[in-house]
Design goal:
The chain is of the alpha/beta class and 396 residues long. The chain has 13 helices and 15 strands. 35% of the residues lie in helices and 13% in strands. Strands 1-2-3-4-5-6-7-8-9-10-11-12-13-14-15 form a 15-stranded parallel β-sheet, with helices on one face. Helix 1 packs parallel to helix 2 and helix 7 packs parallel to helix 8.
Length: 396
């Protein structure tokens, strides 16, 4: 059973009423209280009610008004509750000492599988205690630390300890380390020694090409990682070149996001037969994409490709139209942004009208406001030919 009360502004009084019910609940397994103006007194009541609860498996308390006053009660609940599997307190930026308090709970909790403390104001100085607790914890498999502005020293401490963690499979560090003071060596050790990580999100950590070169060789030693997101990390051409050398020999990586890395040179995964999804959007490589397009028809693994907002040259646009009928494995492609012409849009639509594209099920196109007249004409063209399901559009 699910109790979904998100966006209802129930406040502390409503939270206390729900807490009274949860203390007697034997049936409800999932509760969503996101965006309800709940403050710490309401959270304390909920936490106290869950100490003896034997049914609830997930609770979402994201985007309320929680602060450090409620952390002691949350810790006590996690110490004693033997059922709860997922907890989200995301987007409560005043939980600044959540790291120190959650550390106390994680050393003894055996059931929590997913912990979301995204954008909680996590204090970097509390990372030592938090990261140490992860060495002792063997229950959490998914950890979200996105948007906490953790500094480089804190990120290093986290990776140093996670090298010895035995459970975490999905780790999200999106939008941390804004000062780029992490050097990559601890990340390298983590990737080389951790045997179960499957998804790693480093988007927006701005590591730069030199830090990227430090950790990338260890990626080849990792036999578990399936998804790697290094979008907006400023790895540039040098970091991308080394990454491709590693990825070409990687046997497990299936999803790779390189969006927004100031990569100007096109490349191809010449020996790779594993990667299924590749995101190259927001890189200035539109004039050099030809070799990649040439190889698409011989690759048997890639099914999703995002090359939107990379300023495709007209010659590359023409090459893509000519190549699509020979591509047998690609299922989804995203295009658009600056420079895409109406001629290209119509040529693409005609391929679908003629059923000349054997495998591509969906094309997602970003239309740019600067081409308003052409975009409107293309929208009308899609409507007239009943192509809206095959070719989906959005406006940048």
């Amino acid at each position: 059973l699910v109790l979904d009360l998100r966006w209802n502004s129930i406040g502390d009084e409503g939270a206390k009423a729900i807490a009274a019910g949860l203390s007697q609940n034997c049936f409800i397994q999932h509760v969503n209280l996101k965006c309800n103006d709940i403050e710490s007194s309401g959270m304390i009541a909920i936490a106290n009610s869950l100490v003896q609860n034997i049914a609830l498996k997930t609770i979402d308390l994201a985007a309320n008004n929680l602060d450090n006053k409620c952390l002691t009660s949350i810790v006590e609940m996690l110490r004693k509750n033997q059922v709860l599997q997922e907890l989200s307190v995301a987007n409560n930026p005043n939980l600044t000492h959540c790291g120190k308090y959650f550390a106390q709970a994680l050393v003894c909790n055996k059931t929590l599988r997913v912990l979301n403390i995204r954008n909680c104001g996590f204090a970097s100085q509390d990372m030592e205690a938090f990261a140490s607790s992860l060495v002792k914890n063997s229950a959490v498999i998914e950890l979200n630390l996105e948007s906490n502005h953790l500094n480089g020293a804190a990120i290093d401490t986290l990776f140093e300890n996670l090298a010895f963690n035995t459970s975490i499979k999905r780790l999200n560090l999106h939008r941390n380390n804004p000062n780029s003071d992490a050097k990559g060596s601890h990340l390298s050790k983590f990737l080389a020694e951790n045997k179960q990580i499957e998804a790693l999100n480093l988007c927006g950590t701005k590591m730069g090409p030199e830090s990227a070169k430090l950790f990338l060789p260890s990626l080849a030693l990792n036999n578990s990682i399936v998804e790697l997101n290094v979008a907006h990390c400023n790895i540039q051409d040098g970091g991308a070149a080394m990454l491709m050398e590693v990825v070409n020999d990687c046997k497990f990586l299936k999803v790779l996001n390189l969006s927004g890395n100031n990569i100007s040179k096109s490349f191809w995964l010449s020996n790779n037969t594993v990667i299924e999804s590749l995101d190259l959007s927001l890189n200035p490589m539109g004039k050099t994409l030809g070799p990649l397009i040439d190889k698409l028809n011989s690759n048997s693994s890639l099914t999703r490709l995002n090359i939107s907002s990379i300023s495709l040259s007209e010659s590359v646009q023409n090459q893509l139209i000519e190549s699509l009928p020979q591509i047998w494995y690609l299922k989804w492609i995203k295009l658009g942004g600056y420079g895409i012409t109406l001629k290209f849009f119509k040529a693409l639509a005609n391929l679908f009208l003629e059923e000349a594209v054997p495998s591509v099920a969906t094309v997602s196109i970003i239309l740019h406001k600067s081409n308003a007249e052409d975009d409107l004409e293309f929208e009308h063209y899609l409507f007239r030919h009943n192509l809206r399901l095959k070719i989906q559009t959005s406006t940048l």
